[in-house]
Design a protein that fits this description.
Largest sheet: 3 strands, antiparallel
CATH architecture of the largest domain: 2-Layer Sandwich
Strand order of the largest sheet: 1-2-3
Number of strands: 6
CATH topology of the largest domain: GMP Synthetase, Chain A, domain 3
Mean pLDDT: 96
Shape: globular
Radius of gyration: 17 Å
Strand content: 25-35%
CATH superfamily of the largest domain: K homology (KH) domain
Length: about 140
């Protein structure tokens, strides 16, 4: 269990404190929702969490199987629904690996990404395609 404390500081901004470490982050409402867009919005953090989670699980599988994955990158594009309730409608992820791998290694790494807890926690209505890119 991890506890996070979030305080509304005014002007559509919040400060969150990570209980175990004491690290802090700020959020700001995006420009298209009455904010200044000067920090990650809460929905930006969902996109960030998805990319970070996928890379972390890839890293865990890499360590367990002696597969070098340092330098792997995740690019996440967040799209908001344009009709109805304001929500994330799409989180498209491109994971780019730093080197080529055997078919078995690719399978392990790609399965790791697809089973990350954030990806598995997304609502079924969120379109979350994932593309894996390897060097030629």
């Amino acid at each position: 269990m991890v506890e996070v404390d979030v305080v509304y500081t005014g002007s559509l901004r919040c400060e969150a404190t990570h209980g175990p470490s004491g690290n802090k982050i700020q959020t700001d409402a995006p420009k298209d929702n009455m904010g200044k867009g000067e920090a990650f919005s809460p929905t930006d953090l969902v996109a960030t969490a998805l990319g970070g989670c996928m890379l972390t699980i890839i890293g865990i599988v890499g360590q367990k199987n002696n597969i070098a994955v340092e330098g792997a990158k995740a690019h996440v594009t967040k799209e908001m629904a344009t009709e109805g309730i304001r929500r994330i409608s799409r989180l498209a992820v491109t994971i780019t690996f730093p080197q080529t791998y055997s078919d078995k290694e690719k399978s392990l790494l790609e399965n790791a990404a697809m089973t990350c807890p954030v990806h598995k926690s997304l609502h079924p209505e969120v379109d979350a395609p994932v593309e894996f890119v390897y060097p030629e």
